[in-house]
Design brief:
mainly alpha; 5 helices
């Protein structure tokens, strides 16, 4: 991609395109999602059992987040799940199962490209 010092040509919307900083993450297969859901379910059950032992619950949640990170890849939905699990009393909700389900359901949300946004704003 060339960087021009002149004005932006309206006929070339690629002038505003920004290359992605990270490569896009592929959608995981059904087997990987099933494994992640199994790990999330086990973590939520064990988390409910150790709800009164805060260091054990925190260690379990960090281990679950790391496992899901390696299984599912770079997903921003894992971080709010870890934060929600760190809140005392949230261990009674199946947060990790909800995180895996949200990754499964909302992973295909299409992001608007900068060039499409620029052409929309020009019209």
């Amino acid at each position: 991609m060339e960087i021009s010092s002149g004005p932006i040509d309206p006929a070339k919307p690629d002038d505003l395109a920004v290359p992605p900083a990270l490569s896009p993450v592929k959608k995981p297969s059904w087997k990987v999602l099933a494994l992640a859901l199994l790990i999330a379910g086990i973590s939520d059950v064990v988390s409910f059992a150790v709800a009164l032992i805060l260091p054990a619950q925190l260690a379990l949640d960090v281990a679950t987040a790391i496992l899901l990170f390696f299984i599912l890849g770079r997903r921003w939905a894992i971080l709010p799940g870890l934060i929600a699990e760190a809140i005392p009393g949230m261990g009674i909700f199946p947060v990790w199962i909800l995180v895996v389900l949200s990754i499964t359901l909302y992973d295909d949300v299409v992001k608007i490209k900068v060039s499409k946004l620029a052409s929309f704003l020009r019209s």
